[in-house]
Design a protein that fits this description.
Blueprint lengths: L2 H14 L5 H17 L4 H14 L10 H32 L5 H19 L3 H11 L4 H8 L3 H20 L11
Helix pairs in contact: 2-3, 2-4, 3-4, 5-8, 6-8, 7-8
């Protein structure tokens, strides 16, 4: 984040929150400390979560004591999960780009494997194909259940079944399973 933007944001918050009192400043520091802890010490995640907390704070309605801390913890946890998924996706894409073809025969084998994978996915039931796509994107069964409007157990079943069927179709007739699938 830009330093000027940060300082402007903090000054604005200090001025808005109870007239710039020391209590508001202490609360801001305490919330940042919680976020930093809940984000595993990752400063970027903590800052992103802090901005989200401060943005959503006017809509927060405490139901009982400890609600604010749980609410802050859930926001931090969700931000951290999202950033981990994005990081894993970048690492996967990086590995994928690095591994493309040191020789023409390796490139041909990779193209054949990709073709078998695409064919196996194309032959899946659409609901299973969507479940597999969610799994490839690093999403959880819970997210799939919410998006599809299905039970959590059904989402788990679809992800596992799709993975098993694709594995079976790719490995059918192979002497050695491709890509380490066994």
């Amino acid at each position: 984040m830009d330093q000027d933007w940060d300082s402007t944001l903090i000054e604005g918050l200090r001025a808005r929150a109870t007239g710039g009192s020391a209590e508001a400043e202490e609360l801001l520091v305490a919330i940042h400390g919680l976020l930093l802890r809940y984000c595993g010490g990752d400063e970027e995640s903590a800052q992103t979560a802090l901005v989200k907390v401060l943005t959503l704070l006017p809509t927060f309605e405490p139901k009982h004591s400890g609600s604010l801390e749980r609410w802050v913890k859930n926001i931090a946890r969700n931000i951290r999960k999202k950033q981990r998924r994005e990081q894993q996706k970048r690492q996967y894409e990086s590995v994928e780009l690095q591994g493309w073809g040191t020789s023409p025969s390796e490139a041909l084998l990779r193209r054949e494997r990709v073709s078998r994978l695409e064919s196996a996915i194309a032959n899946l039931d659409p609901s299973l194909a969507r479940a597999l796509r969610h799994r490839f994107e690093g999403r959880s069964a819970k997210e799939l259940a919410e998006i599809e409007g299905i039970a959590l157990k059904t989402a788990y079943w679809r992800m596992e079944t799709a993975t098993r069927l694709v594995r079976e179709r790719i490995c059918a007739g192979c002497k050695t399973p491709p890509c380490g699938m066994s």
